[in-house]
Design goal:
189 residues; alpha/beta; Rossmann fold; 2 domains; five-stranded parallel beta sheet; 9 helices; 5 strands; 13% strand
Length: 189
Amino acid sequence: MIRIGILGDIGSGKSYVANNFGYPVFNADQEVSKLYKKNKTTYSKLNKLLPEYINLFPIDKNEIINAILSDKNNLKKIIKIVHYEIRNKMKLFLKKNKKKKIVILDIPLLLENKINNKKDILVFVEAKKFDIKKKLKKRVNLNHKLYNNFREIQYSPVYKKRKSNFIIKNDFTKRTVKKGIKSILSEIL
């Protein structure tokens, strides 16, 4: 099984690119959302750690946001708990898809949390800053302080690009993304 990890800046279109490969995708953001809605163990751990913020199940995303905005160290605490669960979900995903030729890992902190393997093929999604800002402005609940907190814990796009085996230039058109994916697949298959 070939594991392809998708890297890029916040808002660069990583999930869009991941979903266009045509292979099973492990989307960590979706899995985190499910954890908040359905996983009582995660709730209990977060409630114990941050009782002044996390006190209702299912966990309201706004409670998480408030915890992070009040103290950026809370973000690291939350990530420690959540990423443990995400690793387990990823292991199940990989086991379920072990006979697939390729799987796609759409995990925002793939490198930062050392979730990748040395054999993983890393694809950096590159988009122009102007296009990213335009896209982020369309997000209904974009909070700039929260955005900056997430940026602080991530490796720089320059570092991620340097670590990548391939680069897909994303101009947010399906044609360009498909062309980039086709080129990558022709090299690795």
